[in-house]
Amino acid sequence: LIDTSEDRRVAAGHAGIGMEILDDMPDVETVIVPCSSGGLIAGVASAIKLRSPGVRIVGVNPEGGAAIHRSLEAGKPVTLDRWESMADGLSATRPGDFPFAHIRERVDEVVLVSEEEIAEAFRLLFSRGKILAEPSGAVSVAAWMTGRAGEDAKTIAVISGGNVAADTVSTLLAGGLPEPLRQ
Predict the structure, then answer these.
(1) Looking at residue 132, what is its pLDDT?
(2) Taking the mean position of all CA atoms in its chain, how far away is CA 119?
(3) What is the DSSP string of 58-118?
(4) By 3-state DSSP, what share of the chain in percent is helix, strand and coil, each rounded to 5?
């Protein structure tokens, strides 16, 4: 059994995404990555910063589940008392110690997005990009759409995950907001 919040192989595996980004777009200026327990962003940020230190790495948490954002403010991993968001793939209430060390060193900023912004990004991805993303993956696009991740012309938003329930899709496409997952 793998502890995804602490097993180094998780971050190492995700580093391949960062390497592919640089291979496909070597002049990228900003990479936006969804954040949960930290393995994905730690791996992506480490690979990119080791090859191209000038690339800006921006993490994204939903407002109702900002474990990494709050941990960075505190300077150490903290546990949330409450987690509430439709972006259930980002439901970690605490970042792992191992990925958090890499996040502190290599991530330039972590921003927050609202449930409404996640829903708008989901709809944009579906209608214009023909991408059926789960809300957790849409947070990166939400950060880009709001301008919180910067204004760089050469930006990549990582859209991760692939688990979205049919009722969530129906609700979002109808313009509503699904009930958030609560922990």
Answers:
(1) 93
(2) 15
(3) EEEEEGGG-HHHHHHHHTS----S--EES-GGG--SS--HHHHHHHHHH--EEEEE-HHHH
(4) 50, 15, 40
Reported as a single tens digit per residue, the pLDDT across 133-176 is 999 999 999 999 999 998 878 999 999 987 888 999 999 999 99
Summarised one tens digit per residue, pLDDT across range 107-122 is 999 999 999 999 999 9
pTM: 0.94
Q: How confident is the model at residue 9 (pLDDT cuts 50, 70, 90)?
A: confident
CA distances 85 to 18, 38, 66, 129, Å, are 26, 17, 10, 23
Within 8 A by CB and 6+ apart from 130, the residues are none
90, two tokens: 């980002």
Quickly count: other Cβ atoms within 10 Å of residue 8's Cβ.
14
Q: At 158, is the secondary structure helix, strand, or coil? A: coil
Q: Give the H or E element holding residue 179.
A: none
Q: Match 């921006």 to its residue by tokens.
A: 58
